[in-house]
Amino acid sequence: MKIDVVLGLQYGDEGKGKVCHSLLKDEDYTHVLRFNGGGNAGHTIYHNGKKLVTHLVPSGVFYGKRSIIGPGCVVNIRKFLSELEYLKSEGVNTEGLVFIARNAHVVTEDHIVEDGRDTKIGTTKSGNGPAYRDKYVRTGLRAENFKELEPYLVDIYREFYSKPSSEHVILAEGAQAIGLDVDWGDYPYVTSSHCGIGSVLLNGFNHKDIRNVFGVIKAYDTYVGAKKFQGDDPVFEKIQEAGSEFGSTTGRKRQVNWLDWDLVTKSIKMNGVNRLVVNKTDILQTVGEWKIKSRGELLSFENDKEFCAYIRGESERMWIGCKFSYNPYEI
Ligand code: IMP
Ligand code: MG
Asked: Is 145 exposed, middle or buried (0-12, 13-18, 19+ CB in 10 A)?
C-alpha cells in the first residue's frame, strides 16, 4: 500500500482541497480518505470550470475514486446526505463511490445545538467539539448504529487488508491544520481533532506505507475564530479583500497576518513533510508587500521572486521539495 498525505500547516484554508484535486489528476490513486474533522471543514475546488465547496465528501468523487470518510472523522447524517444531493445537482457522480467507516462517530442535531451556543472559541458551530467529546467519554454513537447510513458503511480493515495491500494507493486528505490541532495548536483556540500525520495512522494505516507528506501553506496566515489574530497594519485588510478570505463553512471574514515561518518549520519537522506547496503568492503581488515572520524578526522582501527564494532556501535547508502556485490554482 502507498499513502500520500495532504496536511495543512497553518490554521486551515491553505488550499488543501485544491492540492488534492490536482494530485488526483496526475497520480494513480485508488482511494481518497478524509482522516479527521467533519462538517467544520470547507474545501473549495474548481472542477470543470465550476466552483464547488465540499465539507465532508472526500475529493475522490471528482475523479471517480472510492472516497471514504475515515474513522477519525465525525459525520452529521443530514449534512452528509444533503452534500451528496448538492454534488449530484452539480453534475458530480457520487453513486457507489462514497463511504463512511463503520466506526466513525456521528454528529447529532443536539451536538449542533450545543455547539451553536459557543461564544468562547468561535467554532464553526458544526457540532464537532461535542461529538468528539462524546466519543471520548464513550457515550457517542457510531455510523454503524444508524440504519440510514447502511448503504455507505465500510469496514476499514476489510477494505484495505483483505486484498494484497499493494493494490491500494491512497490519498489521505486532511482537514483543518497544525495550528488548529487540539494538542499542537494555540489551545483552547483549536479544533477538537488531531490534524497531523499521527491522525492519519489512527485511521488504520501502517506508518511504513506513508510515501509522501504534502504540507500545504499559503503566502500569508489566516485564521477564523474568537482570538485576536490580525495585526494592526492596514495591509491585512487589503490582503483579506484581494484573497477573498472568507470562511467557506461560515462565511466569516478570516483574520490575516504575515506568514509565520516558525510555525511552518515546526509543522514540517514534526510531521515529516517532504513536499511543500505554497498557494496564493499572487495575492501579495496584488497588494505589493511581501513579508515573513521568522525567528523573532519581520523580514521584508522587494518582490515575489525574493519572497519565494527565501521559502525555497529554507525548504532546501530542511531537504524538502517546494512548489509555488498561484490563483487560480495550478501545481
Ligand atoms: P470547530 O472545529 O468548529 O470546533 O472550530 C474550532 C476552531 O477551528 C474555530 O476557530 C474555527 O473557525 C476553526 N476551524 C474549524 N474548521 C476549520 C476549517 O476547515 N478552516 C478554518 N478554520 C477552521
Ligand atoms: Mg477551508
From this structure: exposed
